[in-house]
Records
---
Amino acid sequence: MSWGRALSTPVDLNHPGHYLHWGVVQLSLANLVVIGLMILLFVLALIVPFPKGKRRGRR
């Protein structure tokens, strides 16, 4: 089995995508998942503290 075929197996691109409709707004489900992940990553970046480096003793 080739690598290309093994990687393409989970995603079937031979059918139209799934779309969500809110009035005049039309959004694909794949884009909605990407937007959700970006918002989650942004919130995590705000919540998770920066790593503290070793500080040398100041006089």
Note: The mean pLDDT is 82.
---
Amino acid sequence: MSKLIYSMISSLDGYAEAEEGGLGTGAEDPEVHTFINDLFRPVGTYLYGRRMYETMVYWETARNEPDQPPHILQYAEDWRAAEKVVFSTTLESVSSERTRIERTFDPDAIRALKAESDQDLTVDGPTLAAQAIAAGLVDEYHLFITTSVVGGGKRFFPDGVRLDLELVEERSFDSGLIYARYRTR
């Protein structure tokens, strides 16, 4: 059975999306990006909400831009190789290969997908992740914590949810970014 992983960049005060945009520095660092590439290369399926998909679809054509560094080209290749499921009631079509739209988030369908898959899955975006967390589907949480306090926005963890997590890995980067991987107990 595969794992469902929720991973996002987070501000120091716990926001995955700031009200005024921008979560601070660190994620654009080539060392961090290469680490993220290696960490998520084995992922077989990305679960996205519409807004996160619209952000990530950049990777479908990133290889076509001139002078891309190797770590960017590698991430684009890995992203294109994975399956993508976009949960949206408004998106009419997708512009990336290996991508399908689902109109509703069905926890039982995600459980079945986890059971059938031999590769891990990720749920990306705080709104969609909140549904997966509430349904008890998330097995691991990967936080990339920036050096900024943003004071508001969408929280990494949804309100009203209590979790007992075990820290299984941590790493700090020269940019100040901290990676922390937690497993659900």
Note: The chain has a mean pLDDT of 95.
---
Amino acid sequence: MKQTRAIALIGVLFFIFGFVTWLNGILIPYLRIACELDNFQSYLVAFAFYIATIVMALPSSGIIRRTGFRNAMMVGLFIMAGGALLFVPAASMRSYPLFLFGLFVIGGGMTVLQTASNPYISVMGPRESAARRISLMGIFNKTAGILSPLILGAIVLKGNEDLEARLAAMDAVQRAAELDALAARVIVPYCVMAAILFGLGVFVRFSGLPEINPEADNQAVAGSTPKTSVWQFPNLILGLVSLFLYVGVEVMAGDTIISYGLSQGFPLTEAKVFTSYTLAAMVIGYILSIVLMPKWISQEKALTVSAVLGLVFTAGALMLDGFASVLCIALLGFANAVMWPAHWPLALHGLGKFTRIGASLLVMGIAGGALLPLAYGYLVDVFNAQQAYWLLVPCYLFILYYAVAGHKKLSWRATPPEKALQNS
């Protein structure tokens, strides 16, 4: 009963992750108009949000060490509430730097929350079913992600289908007034969000959520050479690189699809729901992974299949046009669904006393969501929105390598194949 209640509460936290994270898909085109940005500048939204993971990942480990996992979750929620409140002065002044700072603070709070909650759910049962439990959390996460752009889009983009054309015909005073009114639309939603985040933080504090000791639940691999540093675990370091690339391609699939739809000629009224298509595909992938793992397919095989599907759908997006191409980007959500839950148990396997710091490093991989979409925005300005998706190909190739061989590497020295297979 206690474990069920704990899983339910962590599920609520994952719902919060998804709701806040996938608002960026709407914020990118919204702030591009409201703050008069080019494509590269607009993708600083994703950069500011996800780069916070590099800054806050290691401090998050220190927070957990001092406060415990439960109180660290509370701290993360409080930080996120503070970041949401920064949207009030940012919107009032129509200040893009202040919007970015608010997103950075929200991303920092979410980093603390992620660092505490992902290892928590990973060790609440057998390692073999860890991806299944995280997939269940993913359903909460992506269901929220489906709802959030629809809700925020209905509020901030309502009646603005031809806004850019109307703005072009206005004089400077009219244009400024119209843009100020547009920017002010986010004030109420983000005030409500701040109140919910703060209230949830208080609830977590007094919820009775049990503490865990991941070091006790994740002992070092039997017979392995004693390690003195977290950097001596290739499965972790390669997993960090793979997770970095995965988060980048996942964010690209969700946050760029609206702008890509616009480039393919779809009106804003249609394109604004495309992020929800990506997330709906992810939810389907999560449901399948819960049914199939680990009884019918291992975490490793699921990650392999996902990487191959990512390459297939990327090829479709590059070769096709119109809705078929957009649909291929949305289907990347299905390909990406199992990647987050599969990476964690593979990368944390055998870390023992280094589990907490290892989890902090993995959370730093979320920075992929900061850098790869920014690179995509640059390539859009240099080439076009479709050809910029070539960036996905090397990312999925490395993820495929990690799924097939990289996660089995438990030492930087050459390991006999039969021993690596035995340890995996």
Note: The CA atoms of residues 19 and 144 lie 5 Å apart.
